[in-house]
Design a protein that fits this description.
Number of helices: 17
Number of strands: 15
Oligomer: single chain
Structural class: alpha+beta
Mean pLDDT: 93
C-alpha cells in the first residue's frame, strides 16, 4: 500500500499530517456541537443540477469551457467532463410560493443557458445519463481541465493499482474496463440541500435515508449506458463502481466503498463525519494553516477545511455538510439520490415530494427508522435503482414489514405524508397539489423518465436495426419534450 500512496503524488508524511488535522477538525466539530454555536433554523433549501451538452443529433459535445464562457454567469460551473456543466440555485426559504419561484428561475436560467450554448452548436440536456454516450466519450482526455479533477483521477487509480471495471447486470449486461474515472462523468444528478439544526440533523438524515428507495423509484431517469439498457436508475451503481478506490483484495475484506449508502441509523451529525475519517483514506490530503482548536479557544469559528474537503470526496447518497456562512457555522443534509430531469416541472415535483416527505418522517412521533431495519432501507434503495417505478419495497406494516409495490406505497401512504410535510413548511397549497399531483400521476400510470426512454427506444428500434441511431433519435425527442416543459407522464411515446 505504501507504493500506491506514493504513486498518487503525495508524500506519506502529507497524509499523516492530514490525518492529524482531520482528528483536530473532528474535535473542533464536537466542541461546536457541545457549545451550541450553530446557526438558528431558517428553513433554507438549495438546488444544484448537473447538465449534459449535446449537439443537434443528440450526441455529446465536449465544450463546457466554450459554453460557460458564453453563459458568463457564476451560477453555472464546470463539472467532471467536458460535456458536463452544473447550475446552482441560490438558497430559498421553504415557505409560501417557493416552488413556483424556483420553477420560474430554473426555466429562465436553463433557457438562457441553452440559447448561449446554441451559439457554439450545443444544447442543454437534463437527464441522468445521456443515452448516446459511448465508451470512447468517457476517457481521461475528455475530463474537464480543472486540476482537482485530474488529481482525483490520478489518486483513485493509484490507490486501486488497477483499471476501473464496470460490471452492471440489468435488462442487458455491461462489462467495461476504464483507465480513468471518466465513466463517473456520465452521472448527472440533482442535489437538494436542507439546512438543519444539530439537534434535528439525525432525524432528518435518517428520514432521508429511509425515503431514498421510494424517491429513486419514482424519479428514475437513467436506463442506458454505452448503448446498453441496464438499471432503471443506472447512475448510482455506475457511480459506485467508477469511484471505487478498493483493489479486489480490499473488496473481499469488506472495506467500504467510497460511494456508500451507509450501514446504520445515526444519533448525531458527528457520527457521519467520524465514520468518514475512520473508514476512508484521504484522496486530496491538502492541509490548511488553520488550527481549529486554537480558533475556538480565541472565540472564533473554524472553517474545518480538511474535514470539508475530505467529506466532499466521499459520496454518500445523503451527505452531511458543514459550512460557515457570514461567520456562523451551519449544517446541511445534501440529498444526492435523484438524476437530473426530465423537465423543470418534474424536478420541482421530485423536490416537493422529498422536502415534504422528509419533514413528515422527521416529525413523526414514532419514526419509521425505529421500525425499518437499516438493511431494508438499503435494499429498497437498490430495488428502486434497479427496477424504478416497478420496484417492490419492504415497508413497516403492523408489527413487521410488508412487501409493497413502490407505486402503491407512494400513492397510498407517502404522498399524503408529503402533503402534510409541505403544509408544515407553509408551502402554497396550489403548488403543493400541482407538484405532488405529478408524482401521483407517475404512480398511477407506472411511468417516469426511465420508462419513457425505454419505451421510446424500443419503438424506434422497431423502425431501424441500428441501436445507436435509435438512441440518438430518442435523445432528440427527449430534448424536444424537455424544452416543451410538460411533465414526463404526459409525453407521447415517440
Amino acid at each position: 500500500m505504501g507504493e500506491k500512496v506514493a504513486a498518487s503524488g503525495f508524500d506519506p508524511a502529507d497524509r499523516g499530517r492530514y490525518r492529524h488535522k482531520l482528528r483536530q477538525c473532528l474535535l473542533g466539530l464536537e466542541r461546536l456541537l457541545a457549545e451550541k454555536r450553530f446557526d438558528r433554523p431558517r428553513n433554507l433549501m438549495g438546488l444544484e443540477i448537473e447538465l449534459n451538452l449535446a449537439d443537434s443529433a443528440g450526441l455529446p459535445r465536449m465544450m463546457n469551457e466554450e459554453v460557460l464562457a458564453r453563459i458568463a454567469s457564476h451560477d453555472f460551473q464546470t463539472e467532471l467532463a467536458q460535456f458536463n456543466i452544473e447550475v446552482n440555485i441560490a438558497p430559498h426559504r421553504l415557505s409560501g410560493p417557493v416552488l413556483d419561484r424556483l420553477a420560474e428561475e430554473l426555466r429562465t436560467g436553463l433557457s438562457y443557458a441553452d440559447r448561449m450554448a446554441g451559439e457554439v452548436g450545443a444544447h442543454i440536456v437534463m437527464v441522468g445519463i445521456l443515452p448516446t454516450l459511448q465508451a470512447q466519450d468517457l476517457v481521461s482526455a475528455n475530463l474537464s481541465r480543472a486540476d482537482r479533477y485530474m488529481l482525483l483521477n490520478d489518486t483513485i487509480l493509484a490507490m486501486r493499482g488497477e483499471d476501473i471495471t464496470l460490471d452492471i447486470k440489468g435488462v442487458e449486461h455491461l462489462v467495461y474496463a476504464s483507465a480513468s474515472i471518466a465513466p463517473e462523468a456520465a452521472c448527472t444528478s440533482i442535489q437538494m440541500h436542507l439546512q438543519v439544526t444539530p439537534g434535528r440533523f439525525a432525524a432528518v438524515w435518517n428520514a432521508a435515508q429511509a425515503l431514498s428507495g421510494p424517491q429513486v423509484a419514482v424519479g428514475a431517469n437513467s436506463p442506458f449506458l454505452f448503448g446498453r439498457e441496464l438499471w432503471r436508475e443506472t447512475r448510482p451503481v455506475l457511480f459506485q463502481q467508477a469511484t471505487d478506490t478498493r483493489p479486489q483484495e480490499l473488496r473481499v475484506q469488506g472495506v467500504r466503498p467510497l460511494t456508500w449508502f451507509g450501514e446504520r441509523w445515526i444519533d448525531s451529525p458527528l457520527d457521519l463525519f467520524a465514520e468518514n475519517v475512520r473508514y476512508f483514506p484521504p484522496l486530496l490530503p491538502i492541509c490548511d494553516d488553520e488550527d481549529p482548536l486554537r480558533v475556538l479557544d480565541d472565540g472564533g469559528v473554524p472553517r474545518l477545511r480538511e474535514l470539508t474537503l475530505h467529506n466532499g470526496t466521499i459520496y454518500r447518497w445523503n451527505r452531511p455538510v458543514y459550512a460557515v456562512v457570514d461567520g456562523v457555522p451551519h449544517l446541511r443534509v445534501e440529498n444526492r439520490v435523484l438524476p437530473a430531469g426530465p423537465t423543470v416541472a418534474d424536478v420541482l415535483a421530485n423536490a416537493a415530494f422529498y422536502y415534504g416527505l422528509v419533514r413528515a418522517l422527521a416529525d413523526a412521533p414514532r419514526p419509521v427508522w425505529q421500525r425499518l431495519p437499516f438493511g431494508a432501507a438499503a435494499a429498497n434503495f437498490e430495488a428502486g435503482c434497479r427496477d424504478g417505478i416497478g420496484a417492490v419495497m419492504r415497508w413497516p406494516r403492523g408489527r413487521g414489514l410488508a412487501e409493497i409495490p413502490a407505486a402503491d406505497l407512494i400513492r397510498d401512504e407517502l404522498l399524503p405524508l408529503a402533503a402534510a410535510g409541505l403544509d408544515s413548511w407553509g408551502i402554497e397549497p396550489a403548488d403543493r397539489d400541482l407538484y405532488l399531483g405529478i408524482i401521483e400521476e407517475r404512480c398511477r400510470l407506472r411511468t417516469n423518465g426511465a420508462e419513457w426512454q425505454s419505451a421510446a427506444f424500443h419503438r424506434l428500434l422497431e423502425r431501424t436495426p441500428d441501436r445507436r441511431a435509435a438512441l440518438a433519435a430518442m435523445t432528440q425527442r427527449y430534448r424536444e419534450h424537455m424544452q416543451g416543459g410538460e411533465p414526463v407522464h404526459l409525453w407521447p411515446a415517440v
